[in-house]
Design goal:
284 residues; alpha/beta; six-stranded mixed beta sheet; four-stranded antiparallel beta sheet; 10 helices; globular; binds adenosine-5'-diphosphate; binds magnesium ion
């Protein structure tokens, strides 16, 4: 348990297991200031290949900003963010573009371009490469649509013709367009009703195991959190207060963790988690 709480840099980020290789994302001593407001204070976090690392924290604790910093869309005030071993804030524009081709992102808002069809939305990242012939793009778009459970009959629809769940799927297909190794999800199930949310969680699970993706996810939704996370990083007091598997993080004595996980919804999600762990144990 002591490994879960980050006290000194040496004790950061208990690795999911010992032979996972170097971190895919390495955040060191990061500070973010907006004017006089300090959002992140000496925050460090490692994310390893193949895991689903979930970030939780109160509203306004800087989860989205942290994702944007990992994507090179914002610069930290201090500290470093390395992705695939490259320091994002030192990278030149062409290097950054090259790195961007290896990750996909699904933002909470602005998931699709409203003036483009589903097909053109998903094709966009491939067309931007200016290297692929249109027939290759066509096959790839239909394949991505199939992967996320969108039939070809939706290809020519406009985003406004789609349900919330279908928009998320189309946005996910676009995020997967360039076959990324790293996928960022900001509140992927927010605004979906429970059935759609469960279906989306299964989809992420399938894609994660089939495509061997590393996933960095921000979520408030405890069902999504417990169903998907290899590890959970708790953002509180302006840094990563605790990081580890759900069962370890839940044992950390901190008011935010108590409040976030151990209310009635948290209790229910926890029971499901424990049942599943018991099932897995009996299957082993
Ligand atoms: N460009 C910006 N300028 C000033 N303040 C910002 C900017 N972006 C984010 N913030 C502030 O930083 C804090 C963290 O924002 P955000 O990362 O969106 O929080 P959340 O954890 O809810 O995703 C918030 O208080 C927000 O108002
Ligand atoms: Mg946010």
């Amino acid at each position: 348990m002591a490994d879960t709480v980050q006290r000194t840099p040496q004790r950061l980020n208990k690795r999911p297991d010992e032979d996972v290789g170097p971190p895919v994302v390495e955040i060191r001593n990061l500070w973010t200031r907006f004017g006089r407001t300090v959002v992140h204070q000496d925050l460090s976090l490692d994310i390893y290949a193949g895991e689903i690392l979930s970030i939780v924290g109160g509203s306004g604790t800087g989860k989205t900003v942290l994702l944007r910093q990992m994507l090179g869309l914002e610069r930290p005030s201090q500290g470093s963010v390395k992705v695939f071993g490259e320091d994002i804030s030192q990278a030149k524009p062409d290097q950054l573009q090259h790195m961007r081709n290896h990750w996909g992102m699904l933002f909470q808002q602005g998931a699709l371009y409203s003036a483009l069809t589903v097909f053109d939305n998903i094709a966009l990242p491939m067309r931007e490469l200016r290297a692929l012939p249109e027939d290759v793009i066509r096959d790839a778009v239909l394949l991505k649509m199939d992967m996320v459970g969108l039939g070809p009959e939706h290809a020519n629809k406009m985003p406004s013709d789609l349900s919330g769940g279908m928009i998320k799927r189309a946005a996910l297909a676009r995020a997967l367009a360039l076959e990324p190794r790293l996928l960022f999800l900001d509140e992927p199930t927010a605004g979906l009703d429970p059935d759609l949310s469960d279906a989306f969680v299964s989809l992420i699970q399938t894609l994660h195991s089939e495509l061997k993706l590393t996933v960095v996810m921000v979520t408030h939704d405890l069902d999504t959190l417990f169903a998907l996370s290899s590890r959970i990083a708790v953002l509180a007091e302006k840094h990563v207060l605790a990081v580890g598997p759900a069962c370890d993080v839940l044992r950390v004595q901190h008011p935010f963790i108590k409040h976030f996980f151990l209310g009635p919804r948290g209790q229910r999600a926890l029971e499901v988690l424990e049942e599943r762990n018991a099932q897995n144990d009996s299957e082993d």
